Amino acid sequence: MDSKLDKVCHICTNLGVMEEEFKNQYEMLKKNEEALRVSEERYRLAVEGANDALWDWDFTNNKFFISEKWKEKIPLEVLNPKLSIIGRWTRLIHPKDLNDTLNAFKEYLRGGSDYFFSEYRLKIKSGEYKWVLTRGKLLRDRDGKAIRMAGSLSDITDRKNYEEKIKQLAYYDRLTGLPNFHCSKEIIGEKINAYNGESRIVLFLVDLDNFRNINDTLGHKFGDKLLITVSEKIKKFINKKDILCKVGEDEFLIIKNMKGTKEEVEIFAKEILNHFQGPICIEEHEIYTTVSIGIDIYPNNGEDAFSLLRNVDTAMYAAKEKGRNTYEFFNTSIYKEILEKTKLEADLRRAIENDEFELYYQPQMNLKTEKIIGAEALIRWNHPTRGLVSPAYFIPLAESTGLIVSIGKWVIETVCNQYMEWKKKGYDEIVISVNVSSIQLQQKDFIFFIKETLEKYDMKPELLNIEITESTLMKSIDSVAEKLKSLKDLGVGVSLDDFGTGYSSLSYLKKLPIDTLKIDKSFVDDVKNGSVEEAITAEIIQLAHKMKIDVVAEGVEEEVQLQVLRVQNCDKIQGYVLSRPLPKEKVEIFLKKQH
């Protein structure tokens, strides 16, 4: 009896334990279910909240999943459902991008890369194309067969539009929209690579005669209108297969495929000259301007784009030397130009000894205080027989011959000496800016020379500002960055000139010790309410201020430009609205007014 009772008790005890275990398991199951629900909810929220689309493609069952946000945009369901997923998808890809995208996918399937990666335009339900970036990775079975692929899809339209704007700035002339010098080199290079001997590649460099005089007399704004009119005039003259570029301030390059006989080329050159015989009407003015044309023919002269452009430029200057309103072929006799430059080089070497250089100063005004707080030093060469020689002509020659080193030292020493003179008169807080080339910066004694000269003239380092351009940076960015840091250690200011005209200027700001950005005149020219230039300058100023960098707008010529820049909180300006570059005596007139 007792044994039966014991068995019953034992069974009851086991049932109790089992019931307790069951309860525990049940509770655990509920917790697991809740955890799974929370996990799935988090995943759903992550997918729906992400800007990127997540997708999954099951090859075996031909099933395709994409997160809801993008599923609503992509019209896969309106395409033929009998088509494969890849078949339907490719019908949405822009025709110009399809081959590259398919090739990238095939290359990935062959094992050419670890991940699939492609950028292309995809048609969405609205009918417009969006730039997308697709990333993906394959899952293979034990036999290596692809069975599944998953990845992400990102909308990169804004980035692509921004890159296109940057490319437009880097490769196209802001004023006319024509391909610029850099772009023309690529175009010529492509034509040379495709050359098959059936025709010749003929370059015509068309330069406006006396454009500088027109610009100085009627102003830069009028000069810009003239350049636009001239570009349209040439466009109407050439045929659709010809390519027109703007490769200089007033220089237009026509790239033309021709048989290349001298007679045929001369006929076309004469037609260009005749095309500019009549007046050009702009506003109330009738402008009469002739052109000088340089001509070079591939493969007769030059092996690459650089040599062809150099040759045609040399030929154009030879045409100017002949009296303008004419054309000149590049040939061996063009070496007269080289001899002329050799003579000019000899004159340049003697210019410092003969005291032929002088400095002009263009005042800079603080927009908040409306006081003159600085000036940019600009060199002028008074040649004994040639008269005033443009810096645009002799500075490149000085750089190519190395004379820029001695000329640069003369400029810095003259600036420091000028500071000492102004200091005696009570003008001791004027910051003077000096343009410095990459060749000067690369000199081993450059920093020592700056330090020694500042001490010699008892000039505060913070009152000297060194201006460099992006092209100077690009020639040797690492060594230049090191020199700039050394200048900063001395207390000398550093400005980045012509900001915005290069392709990657923004990336330098984090790496280099820049105190000031100088917004290029090309942006300031068209600054007005609602313009693209206004938006760009506003962004530049805002970005600079966030990085504690001052901003100087150069080339300010009109009151409306000044007002817009003031509203945008630009720090300083320089330009004709304030003053043109002046000799040192006239600068003092400005300084006296505020003392």
Automatic annotation (TrEMBL):
It comes from the Bacteria. InterPro entries: Biofilm_reg_signaling (IPR052155), EAL_dom (IPR001633), GGDEF_dom (IPR000160), PAC (IPR001610), PAS (IPR000014), PAS-assoc_C (IPR000700), PAS_fold_3 (IPR013655). Pfam families: EAL (PF00563), GGDEF (PF00990), PAS_3 (PF08447). Residues 341-595 form the EAL domain. Residues 199-332 form the GGDEF domain. Residues 116-168 form the PAC domain. This is EAL domain-containing protein. SMART domains: EAL, GGDEF, PAC.
